[in-house]
Amino acid sequence: MFYGRGLVIHLHVGPNLIIQLPVMKKIYFIAIAMIAVAILIFSTAAEDMSTYSTFADAARSGKKVKVVGQLAKDKEMYYNPEKDPNYFSFYVNDAAGVAHKVVLLGEKPQDFELSEQIVVTGKMKKRPSSPPIF
Q1: Could you tell me which residues are beta bridge partners of residue 10?
Q2: 109: helix, coil or strand?
Q3: Which parts of the chain sit beneath pLDDT 50?
């Protein structure tokens, strides 16, 4: 027979034998679950807290990086929503001053041309006969 009294469960095994087992309250289970969720959130957020790179760093690493720069207004921006509304390409000058083509597989952001600074997140895609794109 099980019955709880405070933090102990008494287990009657025989007529004269009682085993006492500690019991966790519901609040402890909730606290452990909240701690586990917090650890999960912090570990996934830590992956996103990377430093800014240049396009040269992105090409060397081959991993997903963040590149900060400015829109190269003297270069071509391509967006044709009638043909493909989820393709927008433009050029960004990174912190080292190197201009590189960036392809956004989504619609063009509103007032994109007015931005002072751009942060792009992605990785370099190598193409055999052309320069790589970000």
Answers
A1: 3, 20
A2: coil
A3: 1-2, 4-5
